[in-house]
Amino acid sequence: MSQSPRLRKSKDREQRRKSKEKRETLLDALVGLQEKEEALFRAEHEYLATKENEIQALVEQEYNEALAKFEEDKQVSKEAANEIVQTRKAAALQTIREAFPLILSNPGAKQVQNEDVIVNVDKYKITRRHVANGTYSAVYYGEDPRGFEVAVKVTPLKSLPRDIREKFLNSLKIRGFLKDHRHSGILPIYAIYQTPEKLYTFCHIMKIDLLKKIKKDGPFPDDYAFKIGKQVADGLAFLHSRGIAHQRIKPGHILLDEFDTAKICCFGFCVQYLDTSVESPKIIGQEGKRHQKYHHFFSPEVTRDGE
Q1: Would you state the torsion angle of the CA atoms of residues 53, 252, 303, 169, taken in this order, to the nearest 10 degrees?
Q2: Cα(203)–Cα(264) distance, integer angstroms
Q3: SS3 280
Q4: For strand 110-111 and strand 189-194, is the pairing parallel, antiparallel, or unpaired?
Q5: For the chain, what percent of residues have pLDDT higher than 70?
Q6: Which residues pair with 245 in a beta bridge?
Q7: What is d(CA 272, CA 285) in angstroms, rounded to the nearest whole number?
Q8: Which residues, 6+ apart, have CB-to-CB distance to 137 below 8 Å?
């Protein structure tokens, strides 16, 4: 016996209602899982930040105790002190020697034909919602293959001046090295892609840059300024211990996360500054730097062209 049109419409409405309720229930469950995952991620970040502070405090305490003991012990000869200094210099030089082959052999960026490969094959997403605009690049929100929010810096290579494009491409090996060898004072890089037209850098999403923070909040208290300065100095020390010069250290290139942890970013102009291929390592001159727009951010060995 066939159903009346009214009865069929009633059943269809009931079926649609149940389907809608089921979808809403599944959506609520999915949102709940995402919130739990984000909460776990935040808790992990807070835990690691706390542990890092505890370790730093312990290291500083041990250093101060060792320094006090050294001050008390006046029997340490000048020769012994010089030997300690030379040993430290040799260890630092050896670290750079070991890092150079890793930098030179690093592929830097993964070569792909176009953005579709990044999105459809490697499952990175680019929303095209702006985070910030740089001199040569635009930064957007994105997602990594696990669904976590990241920042993606997109640099159009073909529209860059030739000398700037060469610097960006020359620094790729260093950026690839920093992707594989992370430090707490350096912005984490997750992936680097290069197409014939653009360069894509996926990295950790941060809260604000130091320049905007200064403009917003004004002068910092001494303890806060010391904390930021120390974190930046630690990041620079890591770079220098690998023979890397950033060349663009300024407030706009220092990012802060939600815990006000400072991280150095923007490595498009970084270079290797020490030649360890010779018996007596020497500074690699960077010709023409002294006349450029940002010469006041360069380190002395760069502005003197290695002299």
Answers
A1: 100
A2: 12
A3: coil
A4: parallel
A5: 86
A6: 271
A7: 10
A8: 153, 154, 155, 156, 268
Q: Residue 197 corresponds to which tokens in the numbers above?
A: 């037209």
- What is the residue type of 271? V
Residues 55-95 have pLDDT tens digits of: 778 878 887 787 777 766 655 566 777 788 888 888 888 88
Name the band, by pLDDT with cuts 50, 70 and 90, for residue 223.
very high
pLDDT in tens, 169-200: 999 999 999 999 999 999 999 999 999 999 99
Site of tokens 């270079």: 271
3-state SS, residue 153? strand
Say how far apart CA 301 and CA 286 lie, in whole Å. Answer: 9
Q: Please name the amino acid found at residue 300.
A: P
CA 115 to chain centre: 22
Across 75-148, the runs of DSSP E, i.e. the strands, are 110-111, 125-133, 138-143
Alpha helices in 106-147 (DSSP H): 115-116
- Kind of pairing, strands 198-203 and 254-256? unpaired
Copy the structure tokens of residue 87: 């040993």
Element (H, E) at 99: helix 78-105
- 268 within 8 A of 168, measured Cβ to Cβ: yes
Q: How many CB atoms lie within 10 A of CB 219?
A: 8
pTM of the predicted protein model: 0.68
Using DSSP's 3-state secondary structure scheme, residue 139 falls into strand
Nearby residues of 49 by Cβ (< 8 Å), 6 or more positions away: 259, 261
CB 187 within 8 A of CB 264: yes
Q: What are the CB-based long-range contacts (under 8 Å, 24+) for 158-161? A: 158/197, 160/136
